[in-house]
Structures are given as structure tokens and as C-alpha cells.
Amino acid sequence: MDIEEEIRSLQLDSAEDNGDVNPEAANLDVEKSDDKMEEGDDKMEEGDGKMEEDLVPTDSVDPVAHEPKVKEKEEQHDEDEINKKRHLNVVFIGHVDAGKSTTGGQILFLSGQVDDRTIKKYEKEAKDKSRESWYMAYIMDTNEEERVKGKTVEVGRAHFETETTRFTILDAPGHKSYVPNMISGASQADIGVLVISARKGEFETGYERGGQTREHVQLAKTLGVSKLLVVVNKMDDPTVNWSKERYDEIESKVVPFLKTSGYNVKKDVQFLPISGLMGTNMKTRLNKEICSWWDGPCLFEALDAIEVPLRDPKGPFRLPIIDKFKDMGTTVMGKVESGSVREGDSLVVMPNKAHVKVLAIFIDEDKVKHAGPGENLRVRLSGIDDEDILAGFVLSSVANPIPAVTEFYAQLQILELLENAIFTPGYKAVLHIHAVVEECEIVDLIEEIDMKTKKPKKKKPLFVKNGAVIKCRIQVTNMICMEKFADFPQLGRFTLRTEGKTIAVGKVIDAPSKKSKQSLTN
Known about the structure:
Elements: H1 2-17, H2 23-46, H3 50-55, H4 61-84, E1 86-93, H5 100-110, H6 116-128, H7 144-149, E2 156-161, E3 165-171, H8 179-186, E4 191-197, H9 202-207, H10 212-222, E5 227-233, H11 244-260, H12 265-268, E6 269-273, H13 299-305, E7 318-326, E8 330-335, E9 341-342, E10 346-350, E11 354-363, E12 366-368, E13 370-371, E14 376-382, E15 394-397, E16 404-414, E17 428-433, E18 436-449, E19 469-481, E20 493-498, E21 501-510, H14 513-521
Parallel strand pairs: 1-3, 1-4, 4-5, 5-6
Antiparallel strand pairs: 2-3, 7-8, 7-15, 8-14, 9-13, 10-11, 10-15, 11-12, 11-14, 16-19, 16-21, 17-18, 17-20, 18-19, 20-21
């Protein structure tokens, strides 16, 4: 028995050395510690939290104290990086199947935004659908409907950078059924890339009447896309094989149309040949072995070299809202057309005159303290519910809010009316202005402008035909935000569409003064 007792005492000793605790002793300790905690709580209330300071070792405070400073420095550095480079929105437009999504996907791959593993995954997916050449488009076309049909439906959005510029790619749908989506993409763009297929038959289909190439060019110009890169895609196709004759033929046919659409071809337009699928002449210049006759720049160089007019960072703040969602408050998305915004700013959402405060600002995924004109932002707001915001509302400065009207005067150019349609007072159409889509009615035709003399005709028109330029009064059902074209071109140009067809383009000349004043004082 003595031996057994000795063994048991040795086991207990070793258990204590190893940190094992006797259950009974443990219970006592827990009870004691509970009592101590209660006492400690009482002491904390009495002594204004001194106990907490006493309990925390001093050496463990420093890293915690320094951490936020490090984070702040990192955030500041990121913000400086963002603000150092200029930012441009590039919309990819053109006929369906010209290769817009493939070219956009290839740009992201070449600029390191997509890794090889993802590309291999998309290649396999495309192969399983028997669509091997679509895999690059999968980078931009992310939903299943787009991948199955091979058609872009929504405006795809992605980001890439060169040494001097941050670009946002807006991949617009080419199919005529989705032109309203293309309009919303182009209205946010600074520059356009018109993608034309060089493949025999494809260029002709896209360019002839009924093809989307012409309509997209007219819309882009109307929506304020002042600079255009015309990329002749699919030059590696067996029917083309980098033929200079085919390239020159396409250029000679497109140039006259660009001129009639209002583009200064020498100053604002540049042509270049590429292969979107193979990535040829995109990041690096063309190899002379592939194409001996091309001496011009590659796509990245051409994009970098484009100069666009600067917007006023000190002007009245204007951000047309294209989308909204709930995220720790109400978050709105849009592009800053004028002015600047800072965290903590008080702004007003027009036309419903809701006063809001800026809680946070995001450029892409980066949180920033402030942002200037031309940036695509997500802005978190307080003081408004997301249900009270619609696409087309405008976040603007309190001191100088954007006018909100139900009626305005405009100058219109009639492009192509529907068959047997006459443009008279009472004509109804769908108005597209910045992010607004609203039904409208032509209330009055004021005067027709003679295209030769550029002066108004003496007789007041009762109706007008294709090609006419008129001044008229337009009425909308709901109150909408707009500016005079002379003051804010981006917020004063619009298109009229009927039954899926663009029938006219125009600019806001003025708003009836009484209504304009009432809208701001009510």
C-alpha cells in the first residue's frame, strides 16, 4: 500500500508540473476569479477604467497604437497613386460579333488583370460549348446568358492601367435589342473604341443600313464621346490575312460617315489594325514579319496618347446616378461630370431635393478621402433610403443644385423617322439624357433651321422630315435633371428613340424660366 501511495503522490506532482489541474481546485479557482471579476467591474465603474490600463502590459500597447498610423500612411500612398494618374472611361462600341468583348478581355489579360489559370478555365468552358474562339470574351461577359448566346447584354465594366493612365473599360452591347444599355455605357465614356470586323461579309453587314456600326457612331458622338479609335479587328482571319487593300477599303468607307456624324477625322479619329483574339498590335507593336505595311502605334500606345479636355475640379458638383444599392447605408454609383467631392460633404439629391451626407467614397475597390471630375465612384450616403433614388437622379452641390424640369427647349436633328411617320407636335418618343430614360412628347415646333444659311426659316413648321434641324419644346411626364448644353455638354445632350430605333439627337437650349425656378424653390 505504501508503494501505491508513493506512486499516486508522484503522479500528482508531475501533473502539477505539466500544468494539469485538479478538478476540485479548478472549480475553486473559477469561483475565485468570478468574484475577482465582479470586484474588478465595480472598481472599473468607480475608477473610470483605470484597472484596464493597469492590466494591459505597457509593451503590448505600442504596436496597437502605431498600427492605425501605418494603415493611414498606406491609404494615403494608395490615394496619391490614384490621383497621380489621369483617369479615362473607354467605351467599346460596334456591330454585334465585331469582337468588342474579346478585345476588352485581351486588354485585361495583357495588362496583367487576369492570370493564365483563369484563361485556361475559360478556354475549357468555351470548348465545352463548342465555341473555342469565345474564351477571351468570357473575361468581360460574366453572366451565363451572355456566354451561351455569345452576345453582351449588360455594359461590362473592368479596369486596367498603363504607365500614365488608369482606364475603365465599358464593354457596350452590339445587338440592336440592347441599344439602351449601350447608351448608358457611352454616356459615361470619355473616349470610344469603335471595333470593326475586317472579315469578309462581317464588315459589310455591320456597316450597311440596319447594322449597328452606324447607329453606334451617331450615338457615341451625341453622347459626348469626342475622341474615337477605330480598330479594324480580325485582321488575322484567313479571308483577310493582314491585307492592306482590305484595311484601306474599310477606312475609305468609314471616314465619310464619321465626317457626316460630326467627327473631325484628322484631329479626333485614329485607325489601327489589330487581332483581338491573338492580341496582335495591342500591347506591343506589329512584327514586320506579320504585317510589313503598318508603321503606326499599337492599341495601348494610341490609348495613352489620346488627349481629352480637362473638367473643372472647382465647378459645381454633378454626379448622375446610374445605380444604387444597400451597403452599410445607401450607396450610389456614377461618374463625376463636374466638381469634386470629399468625405463628410453635404450634398443634395435632385430632383427630390433630399439633403445627404457623404460617409465614404470608393474609386474601384479603393477607399479614398476625395475625388475629382471624370472618376467613377461609389459614394456611401446618409440621410436617404435607396428606395428614394432612381437612375438618372443627380447628386449635386447644395449651393448650386442641378435644375429639375418637366419641360424644356431643345435643338433637334432628325436622323431617320420610322416609315410613314411624320414629326409633328404630339409626337411621342423615349428620351435618353445622361442616365435618364423617360417618355416624352413634342409639344411645339418653334422654328426650322435652314442648313445652308444656318438661319431660321421664316415660316413656322407644322411638321418636319428626315434630316431637318429644328427648335422645339419637349415635355416629360416626371421631373428630370438636366443642364443647358452651353453650360454642361454632358448633361445637356440627348437622343430620342422610338420602337428600338434612334430617330433624333439633340441638345438642351433652355428650360422655361418659371418652371426651372419653381423646381428649385419648392
